[in-house]
Amino acid sequence: MNKKPSILIVGAGAIGSFYGAILKKAGCSVSAVLRSDYNAVRAQGIRITSPLGDLSYEPDHVYRDGDLPEETPDFLILCVKVLPGVDRVALVAPWMGEKTRLVLIENGLDIEKELADAYPQNPLISCLAFIAASRTESGVVEHKAYGKLVMGRYPEGIDEGCRALSQLFIEGGIKSDLTERVVSERWRKCLWNTPFNPLSVVANGADTLTMLDTTGGEELVRAMMREVIEVAAAEGYPMDEALIDQNIDNTRKMPAYKNSMALDYLNDRPIEREAVLGNVVALAKRHSVAVPHLNTVLVTLKMRAALEGRE
Amino acid sequence: MNKKPSILIVGAGAIGSFYGAILKKAGCSVSAVLRSDYNAVRAQGIRITSPLGDLSYEPDHVYRDGDLPEETPDFLILCVKVLPGVDRVALVAPWMGEKTRLVLIENGLDIEKELADAYPQNPLISCLAFIAASRTESGVVEHKAYGKLVMGRYPEGIDEGCRALSQLFIEGGIKSDLTERVVSERWRKCLWNTPFNPLSVVANGADTLTMLDTTGGEELVRAMMREVIEVAAAEGYPMDEALIDQNIDNTRKMPAYKNSMALDYLNDRPIEREAVLGNVVALAKRHSVAVPHLNTVLVTLKMRAALEGRE
Fold first, then answer.
1. Ordered mean pLDDT values, 10 residues apiece, chain B (311 residues)
2. Do residues A120 and A245 share a domain?
3. Quick check: B214 and A297 CB within 8 A?
4. Per the CB < 8 Å rule, is A216 touching B307?
5. What PANTHER family does its record include (chains A, B) (predicted)?
6. Looking at beta carbons, which residues of chain A come within 8 Å of B199?
7. Which positions in chain B touch A210 (Cβ < 8 Å)?
8. Does residue B154 contact residue B191 with C-beta atoms inside 8 Å?
9. Closest CA to A123 of A163, A66, A90
10. B203 to chain A, minimum CA–CA distance in Å?
């Protein structure tokens, strides 16, 4: 590609806004489809403070969810949360051109299939983001630290599109790694997220060290990690059990912190329960793998949602 | 015993006040040791509304926790909650005479041993109360329904003291059954309480039907019940698995309700976590019985307590 490709960010929250800024810095045209932040971004663009400097930018086009596209993008980057009420297939439908590559920068496991099935002709690039960023108000994002991406073609492999996109992110100033087995990388990330995130919510927003230092807490986290490893293995993504020690050790080395799901919970935002935990338990059932610890946490969260009339 | 025996209630909350009233009706002298409700009860006695009529009474003596006894009672009935911060052995110490029979009307499993070990010469009577009652303000109790007791000598058997006490409760107007195996009865009661009570707290105060009707909820409750049955069997108290169906069916036949631990939680009162759940998990460990569902709920509750600086 000689001309820099066109990018459309669907769901420009903290993550989408940040990665859009990086691609803008790399020289791409970057547009955004917004819902609640439409007016703010239309008026003042996207404001981003970052250790990388001021990353604020004006998107080339600002669309409102429901607008008809002026053109379809080379890369459609989907950054909405994976929630039961959000129909991602419908959300991207108006913007999917024949050659549009669909890029997911989203959390969770088994979140690609639905989109791959709906758009079998469009290459799907799955990305993992290692980043600390938050939206502080409409159109305003605080990038705190990190930002590295790991990406690959779904379900596996690396193609020209992956290479081009990864290179653009690097040109924009962040780290980006390619992987032949992106699903495997998702499992590695979820080895941490699937136990810690939902557990922090059931524990009313507990931080990492509170969870580990509670009597029986570290053992519970380890038991949940072992269950994740068993499900991953049944899915064809074996992981070394030594990763459990590594994850625990690394978590203990960091200061106590509240993970993103704990923060969502404490701020009354919806949590990505199914993407991070429910899908793992569903896969476990399909493979007849017993996951009593994961299931107890999942059902407890469902009971809470039922109590609040949310399901 | 020709003369009616003397009774001392230690911990005259809803349960202690109610059963004191019944024994008062049966003609016993009934005194009470109080802490926070001392002044109110001293001034106006104990007020109890009940479907059985007005059960209000003046205790023969009203003591404050820490007073020295004028005499030791024939039956010391201990009704305080079983909580880590409450030293029950010390609490009853000043009132234990050589011939005093110690009576527990308290919830939970494995709650007798500590007292039996401390007072090996005093017969210990363990009671289960099937009652709906609550303390609405200092010295004021609302008895809503039920009231039946099941009692026996701890660790097993029925002696003269049990018979006499049970007969007094019957004379006072409630049902009272004797059992040769009171610990076995505790397990049967905990088959319901151990899953439902703590689960309702983790689920933020969910009622019975919300818990059962959540997707996966009934299965989770059943899994926890199976674990309770396994621990009970290892302890020498086998239960029929058919009790699980019975418990679920009976719960479904009742209107949705919030159990006592859910209400304690919602009203910011301490919960009897260890008595109802922690002790079961501890026994499971001792017998190497795997209880992943029970343990997940237990550790989650501990994480919450740690988060709130309560342990």
1. 87 95 98 94 96 97 89 96 94 96 96 98 97 93 96 98 98 98 97 98 96 98 98 98 98 94 94 97 98 98 93 76
2. no
3. no
4. no
5. 2-DEHYDROPANTOATE 2-REDUCTASE, PROBABLE 2-DEHYDROPANTOATE 2-REDUCTASE
6. 300, 303
7. 303, 306-307
8. no
9. A163
10. 5
B56 plus B168 within the same structural domain = yes
User: Could you write out the DSSP letters of every residue in A101-127?
Assistant: EEEEE--SSS-SHHHHHH-TTS-EEEE
Joined tokens for residue B64: 């404050």
Which CATH number belongs to the domain containing residue B144 in this structure?
3.40.50.720
Query: Cβ A306–B213 below 8 Å, yes or no?
Result: yes
The structure tokens listed for B63 are: 């003591």
Residues A156 and A256 in one domain: no
Cβ of B203 and A304 within 8 Å? yes
Give yes or no: residues A230 and A117 share one domain: no
Contact check, Cβ <8 Å, B210/A303: yes
Instruction: Judge contact between B82 and B14, C-beta under 8 A.
Output: no
Cβ(A16)–Cβ(A9) below 8 Å: yes
**B164 and B73 assigned to the same domain:** yes
Lookup result for tokens 């099937």: B130
Nearest Cα of chain B lies from the Cα of A294 at a distance, in angstroms, of: 9
Nearest CA in chain B to A206: B307
